[in-house]
């Protein structure tokens, strides 16, 4: 597999993307007449400036490049996280506008009929539309994640499974099913948005100007590069290790090609320790990302308001606590049998804040 990773630095996402695709001569890899799916990360309905979602100007750059090279059958596929509306995300994140201007089809995978795909003993429900396309361009945002440390190319495919399956992935430990999902759906090209990501939280809120876009053909290698960028050893991220084992790609040595090294920012900030600072208050077992992220955000708010120092009990969260009656404070309807529980699936951050204030 091609082990080149191409990187371009700057702020003009659309022209940078086109330069990157030209430089890597991407058209050489896409058979004529291919139906092409673009998979951005629109996990929540927040604009890219929040650090949560893929910059739409990158997707515009990809579409213009494809159209200029004769590819006209293009769709954008996404399904936001549990409890959020993809259609709202398409609107808020600027993708409805892209669809209108370029005549592109938007597919909300939450409306899609799932198909059961068997991979390595795993049955995975996958939104069927993705299989109608010949070539998948994965356009993740290089972000931190409060449970898996990193979210980039491999994890971005979670937007192609139904909500019920997203929930189930968490009961299966997240890492293994993410790796198998990438066995069931082949990514042909990855264009990584690292212009203004949040290095800590999947749902954004603390964007950092990193000012680069990366391109590669191997999602395992790209994620290994992304992990290093956030200050991790790639093999510390379990799903990278598993994906390599499954033969999806190869982590490790890559050939870095910087198109404009003279524009490289002087220093990139690595992942901060915000999440680990708050994670010590939590006992987590198979919690959905949105639930866990809402709790971390709630603890941050409590800290800002001076209430966190009064928290002297553990907080329990996740599907692993279903049916358990325990003494601590439960967060989310999965812990409804706890003596003290904040109901909701998922409970909202602001509601958790108010609930905890009353129960400290
Ligand atoms: S309560 Fe939270 S952890 Fe449980 S299913 Fe709902 S979102 Fe997931």
Describe the 3D structure.
The protein is an alpha/beta fold and 360 residues long. Helices cover 32% and strands 19% of the residues. The protein has twelve helices and 16 strands. It has helices spanning 13-23, 56-68, 86-92, 95-102, 153-156, 163-171, 175-184, 219-229, 238-245, 274-279, 289-304, 349-359; strands spanning 4-9, 36-40, 74-78, 105-108, 114-119, 122-127, 135-139, 143-145, 149-151, 189-194, 212-216, 255-258, 282-284, 315-317, 329-331, 340-342. Strands 4-3-2-7-10-11-1-12 form an eight-stranded mixed sheet, sandwiched between helices. A four-stranded parallel sheet has the order 13-14-15-16, with helices on one face. The model has no long low-confidence stretch (mean pLDDT 93). The structure holds iron/sulfur cluster.
The helix-strand sequence is EHEHEHHEEEEEEHHHEEHHEHEHEEEH
Give the CA-based shape: globular
Helix count from the secondary structure assignment: 12
CATH superfamily of the largest domain: LarA, N-terminal domain
Bound molecule types = iron/sulfur cluster
CATH fold name of the largest domain: Rossmann fold
Number of domains: 2
For the sheet with most strands, the description reads:
8 strands, mixed
- Provide the gyration radius in Å: 20 Å
> Order of strands in the sheet with the most strands?
4-3-2-7-10-11-1-12
Protein name: DUF362 domain-containing protein
Pfam families: DUF362 (PF04015)
InterPro entries: DUF362 (IPR007160)
Domain DUF362: 36-227
Could you write a compact summary of the structure shown?
Helix content is 32%, strand content 19%. It has helices at residues 13-23, 56-68, 86-92, 95-102, 153-156, 163-171, 175-184, 219-229, 238-245, 274-279, 289-304, 349-359, and strands spanning 4-9, 36-40, 74-78, 105-108, 114-119, 122-127, 135-139, 143-145, 149-151, 189-194, 212-216, 255-258, 282-284, 315-317, 329-331, 340-342. Bound molecules: iron/sulfur cluster (SF4).
């Amino acid at each position: 597999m091609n082990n080149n990773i191409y990187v371009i630095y700057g702020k003009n996402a659309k022209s940078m993307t086109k330069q990157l695709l030209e430089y890597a001569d991407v058209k050489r890899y896409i058979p004529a007449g291919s139906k092409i799916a673009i998979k951005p990360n629109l996990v929540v309905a927040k604009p890219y400036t929040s650090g949560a979602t893929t910059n739409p100007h990158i997707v515009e750059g990809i579409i213009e490049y494809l159209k200029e090279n004769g590819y006209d059958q293009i769709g954008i596929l996404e399904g936001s996280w549990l409890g959020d509306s993809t259609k709202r995300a398409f609107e808020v994140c600027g993708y409805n506008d892209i669809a209108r201007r370029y005549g592109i089809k938007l597919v909300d995978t939450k409306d899609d009929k799932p198909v059961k795909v068997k991979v390595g003993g795993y049955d995975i429900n996958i939104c069927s539309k993705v299989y109608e396309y010949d070539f998948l361009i994965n356009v993740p945002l290089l972000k931190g994640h409060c449970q898996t440390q990193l979210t980039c190319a491999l994890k971005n495919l979670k937007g192609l499974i139904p909500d019920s399956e997203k929930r189930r992935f968490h009961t299966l430990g997240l890492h293994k099913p993410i790796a198998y999902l990438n066995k069931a759906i082949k990514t042909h090209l990855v264009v990584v948005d690292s212009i203004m990501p949040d290095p800590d939280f999947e749902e954004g809120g603390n964007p950092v100007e990193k000012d680069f876009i990366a391109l590669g053909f191997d999602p395992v290698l790209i994620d290994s590069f992304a992990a290093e960028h956030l200050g991790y050893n790639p093999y510390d991220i379990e799903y990278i290790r598993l994906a390599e084992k499954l033969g999806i790609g190869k982590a490790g040595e890559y050939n870095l090609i910087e198109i404009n090294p003279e524009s490289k920012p002087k220093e990139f900030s690595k992942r901060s320790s915000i999440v680990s600072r708050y994670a010590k208050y939590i006992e987590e077992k198979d919690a959905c990302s949105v639930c866990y992220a809402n709790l971390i955000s709630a603890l941050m708010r409590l800290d800002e308001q001076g209430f966190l120092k009064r928290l002297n009990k553990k907080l329990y969260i996740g599907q692993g606590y279903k049916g358990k009656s325990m003494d601590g404070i439960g967060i989310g309807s999965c812990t409804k049998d706890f003596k003290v529980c904040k109901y909701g699936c998922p409970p909202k951050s602001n509601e958790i804040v108010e609930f905890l204030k009353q129960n400290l």
